Amino acid sequence: MNAxxxxxxxxxxxxxxxxxxxxxxxxxxERQPHMKAALAHLEKAVNQLDKATADKGGxxxxxxxxxxxxxxxxxxxxEFDNRK
Length: 84
What we know:
mainly alpha
């Protein structure tokens, strides 16, 4: 095999490996964007509920509790899916 063919094969292999690596990195970066967005919104909701005035007949406290439970469930869902 001459040097030109060998260098072409090496270059092509590196090019394919680079593309494959970029796609894997992109796939990892894009994993579960909706779950992560929901998590961010839930965390903001807890923050806003915490800042609200306390007199809501217990409903604000209940909403905070349920939202925290939702945060934990979303985190568990993300963990579960990441095991695949």
